[in-house]
Amino acid sequence: MSLFGATDSAIAEDIGDRLKTLRLDRNYSQKELCELTGLSIKAILNAEKGKSNIVTYIKILRALNCLDHLENFIPKPGISPMQIVKSSSKKRIRASNKKQTQTSGRKRVRKSDEDRTQTE
Q: What fold does the segment set 8-73 form as a domain?
């Protein structure tokens, strides 16, 4: 089935059909799948019709030992070539803002402070 020309409903139905095929390939009845997942028979029927939510699909895939199918569903994006270049480039080392000054234990007086004391 080509997904690009299909409607949302048709894609959902196709997902349900694939789920049903997985169940049958593993020789589970709908009732057995209910017991494994803790879902109702109606939830299983709806999932196989493509009328369910993602959590229900996850529960069913887990019970069928097919969670690895989700890796292909929406694969994690790899590192792009630009990210590789950025991560391999040298990072700038910045100088600190703190200036190191030596004080001899007495209070430092600015020139303008000395001028004020002399004029007073």
A: 434 Repressor (Amino-terminal Domain) (1.10.260)
